[in-house]
Amino acid sequence: MTLIPLSPIDHIFTGIGSYPIEFVFAYDRTIDPDRLEGTIEEVVRHFPPIGSVLVKTSEHSYALEPSAHGVHFESTDSAMPFGEGAARYDFLDPVNSVEGEPLTRIKLTQTPEGSVLGVSMSHAVGDGFSYFYFLSAWAKLFHGERILDPSHERHLLIPDAQLRNESPTPGDVLSDCGIFWDERRTATERKKMHWDRLLLSKEELGALLREAQQDCDGRLSYNDVLSALLWKTYLEKWDGEHGDSPTFASCPVDVRRILKNFPRTYFGNAVCLATTSLDYDELAGAPLGVLASTIRTIIAGVDEEYARRSLGTLEALRAQQGLSVLEENHVIHPRSGILITNLSRLPIQDIEFDAGPPVAFDILTPAQRGAVVLPAAEGADVRVCYPV
C-alpha cells in the first residue's frame, strides 16, 4: 500500500487531545443509506486520506496508510429528533487520531423528521477547507457529476532535512509557529463541554465595526472585530482578572493563497497559527478597535516566510524530541487562551444528496476554548466551546 506522509502541521493533530473536525447535518427528507454507502468507495479513490489509518514509520514520523476497511460507515434509526445541545452527540461516531483507528467515521441516522448525517474526520487528515471539499465532492459524485480532483502533494509542506543545531525551545515554538509547547494534552470529556451560541445581526456587526474603527486608523474587517470581541469577552469570563498574567488569542490562517506555486485544491492541513498576547489588565482596559487592530496585524504577518519557518521549527521539534512531544503541543493555550476560527463561507448548501440541502447543521468539534464563526442567513452565527 502507498503511504501518505504527514506534514509537520499534520503531525500536531495526532494523539490524545487532537480534536477532530465534526459536524452534523439535518435533512427534512430521507437519505437512502444504501445509495450513500455505495458511493463511499468512489469518493475514497479521489480522497485516499479519508479511508486511511495512522501508522508509525519511524521514532519521529507518522504516515497515512490506506485501510482495507476504508471509511467507517454506520446506518441507524432513532426516535429522537435533531434537537438541541448535548443530544446531538448521539448523531456522531467520533474518531480517535491514534495508530490503527479509522480516521473518518460517518453515521447516518433516520429520525421521524428526516435524516441526520454526522461526519467525524481526524484533523491529521485535513483542515476545515479539506473537510468541506471532501463533503461537497462526495455530494457531486453521489449525483454522478464530475469533480475537481484534490492535490495530495504533502511533500510540498515538508521542509528539507536541514535541522537547526539547537533544539527548539517553547519560546521558539510560540514565536515561530503560534503553538504552545506546554503540559501533556488529556482526552476531552464531551459531557463536560458547554457550547454558547451567539447570533449577531448585520446591524449589530455594523455597530461593532463602527465602534472599533473609532480607535483604529487602518481598515478593519468584521472578522477582526468579532475575534477581538470574543477574546475580550471570554477570557474575562473564563479566567477573571489576573493582573499581569498573559492571555492569548490564536487564529488559524489558510496558506493556500500565500505559498507560491502551491495548489489551491490541496487536501490536508494548509494552515498556520497566528497568535498574539496581552496581559489581563491590558486586555480588560483595551478599546475594541485596539484589540481588532492587533488581530489584523498578526493575521497579516502570516506570509511565506512565516509559514516556512513554522513548518521548519515543527519538523525540527519532532525530529529531535520524537513523537511523544506531539501531545505536549497545543493550538490553544490550555489555561488562558482562545482559538477563533472563521468558517463563515462554508458551502453548506452543496452537501446535498437525495434529501435536498441541509435544513440545519451544528459543529461538535471538541475544542476546549475554541470559538467558530459559522455562516448565517443574516449576520454571524458564533459557537464557543469550553469546559464546565
Word description of this protein:
It is a single chain. Strand 6 (104-111) and strand 7 (114-121) form a beta hairpin. The model has no long low-confidence stretch (mean pLDDT 94). The strands form four sheets. A six-stranded mixed β-sheet has the order 9-16-15-13-10-11. A five-stranded mixed β-sheet has the order 5-6-7-2-14, with no helix packed on it. With 388 residues, the chain is of the alpha+beta class. The N and C termini lie far apart (44 Å). The chain has helices spanning 8-12, 33-38, 40-46, 128-142, 170-177, 202-213, 222-239, 280-285, 288-300, 304-321, and strands spanning 4-5, 21-26, 52-58, 61-66, 72-77, 104-111, 114-121, 180-181, 193-200, 246-254, 271-279, 329-330, 337-342, 360-363, 370-374, 380-387. Helix 6 packs across helix 9 (288-300). The protein is globular and about 60 Å long.
Average pLDDT, to the nearest integer?
94
Count of β-strands: 16
Which band does the percent of strand residues land in?
Answer: 15-25%
Largest sheet: 6 strands, mixed
What is the radius of gyration computed over CA atoms, rounded to a whole number of angstroms? 21 Å
Q: What is the H-and-E element order? A: EHEHHEEEEEHHEEHHEEHHHEEEEE
Q: What structural class do you assign from the helix and strand content?
A: alpha+beta
User: Strand order across the biggest sheet?
Assistant: 9-16-15-13-10-11
Low-confidence stretches: none
Quaternary organisation:
single chain
Label the overall shape. globular
- Give the helix proportion (percent range): 25-40%
Terminal CA distance reads: 44 Å
- Provide a count of the helices: 10
